[in-house]
Structures are given as structure tokens and as C-alpha cells.
Specification:
Blueprint lengths: L7 H11 L11 H7 L7 H11 L2 H10 L7 H13 L7 H12 L11 H5 L3 H27 L4 H28 L4 H27 L7 H25 L7 H40 L11 H13 L6
Length: 323
Amino acid sequence: MTPQHPSTWLVALVASLAMSNSVAAEPPPPCDALYYGIDRKVDLAAAHACYARVGDHEMLALMAANGEGTPRDLDRAREEARLAVKGSSNPQGQQADALVSAIERQAGTSAAKALAYCDDVARADDALNRCAWIRLGVDSTRHDATLDAMAAKLTPPSVRALAALRTTVRLLRTAENARGQLKYHQGSLSVRMGIAHEASVLDAFVTLVTEVIARAQPAWTAQELATARAELAASAKRDLADFAGAHPTRDPDPTQRALMKRHVGDYRRASADCATRWTELEAGLRAFAIATHGPAGADPLANVAVDLCTARRMLLDLRGDGE
């Protein structure tokens, strides 16, 4: 039976999974980092110059309509929108229509709400992909700022322990992303699920660090810990069996058979890597708790593995059906 003590770690995990959308196979370009302030301060003038260099007419149109990094100029916005539609692979599609309509909504008023690419324009798969990476980048930057603020109030030993923990989480995020992509390896769903896994780790980690500092972890019993570990082991075994069953290595086509065999092997290795990283996270959290609260600091976290096991099991059991 699953322990009945939901923590904000699990609430954050569920929320981040629910919010996942289609995402691209690679992060947003530097121009988006400048525009949205990903790992740096927002610099609209530099973003505008960057978009101009790479010929991103959609963003140039929106920035001209909004007066961001350049004077507000609806005629210029319409021209940039025309160039964007002209260069589109689907000039008659929903995204082209959305862009033109968004620009026209800005006409006739000086107090119009600023247009947002992801809300007002993004309709095509590649645009939705781009927006999901942008959201992840913005969230990651926000979480880094939160952790930096926490670190500023900690003792040097705690700061060092937290720095090591953050490195562990970066490796875990990468590992879970890779596992998610391998699990759902066809089309955009693979990247969507990879980012869903990574975003879940990111959100939950910040929540758990906050709980460690506040010593707010629930007191799990030894039986609940044993139950959580058993359920995790069963979920991991079932996950690998389900994956192998979905990628049969007895295909009559030798090429396909070799491909499936390699893919199953890759997924097994990725799963093992994730398991190692989760174990490192558990050890890092205990070390951080001791560095922050002294030797007794580990007592409230003696069963922190319950939360970690439950979070891992939720990711293992995550399905992309119907996405």
C-alpha cells in the first residue's frame, strides 16, 4: 500500500507533469535567452538585434507591435509578419493566421496588451516545441535564483553541500530527460516526455530543499519506507518489461530486430543511470541536512527515501498515451 502522506514534493511533481507540452529536440536559441531572461538579464534591444541577425520575422513582428527593443511601429510589424508568412513552410496554416491576426489586434489602440509569442502566435509543432523549452529555461532560471537566495543564508558547509547537490540534480535532470526520450522514441512525444521528466525533477528538487532547510519532512515509518522501496522495485521491473514488450527483438526483419535490440539495451542502461542518480540525490540530501542542522539534522530525513521512491515510481509509471 502506498504511504498516505503526500508532501509538496509530490504535489510539485504532479503539477509539473500535468503542465508538460510538446517540446523541441534542442533548447531555444540565444535570442530567446536574451528576450526571456534565461540564465541572464532580459535585454530587449540585444534580443531585437539578435532576431534581426537570424531573420526571425515572427519575433521581429511582435516586438515592433509591442514596442519592445524598438519603437512601436505597426506598419513595420505588418511587414515583418508578411515576411514571416512568406518564409513559412505552411503559409496558409494556423500559425500564419494567428500571427497576422495578433498584429491586427494591436491596431487602433496605444494601450493594447503586449503580444506574447507562445500565447498569441505559436500553433505549429516546432513553435510549440520552442515554447516548451522556453518555459523550462525560464523556470530553471527562476529556481536557480531561489536556490541562490537560500544559499546566501546558509553556513559555508551547507553552501558547499548544496552546491554538490545542485550538480547531482543537473546530472539527474539530464538522465531522466534521456530516459524519457528513449521510452517514447517516436515523433515529438519522445521529447515531450523527456522534458516532462526533467521539469518534474527540477520543480520537486527546489521544494524538497526548502523542506530540508525548514526541517519540514514528514516522519515516515520503517514499514512505509520498506513498502515504498518494494513498490519502486516492482515499478522498475514492470517498466523494463513493458518497454521490452513494446520493442520485440524477434522481428523477422533482421534490421528491425537489431534496431529494437539496441534500443532496449539503451533504455536499460538509461534506466540504470537514472537509478544511480536518484541514489546520489538521496545521499546528497542527507549530507545537506547534516551540514545544515548538524548530526541530528538527518533524523527528520531518515525516511526521505519514501518521497524519492514515490517520485521515481510516478515517473516510471508515466504514460504518454493520449498526449
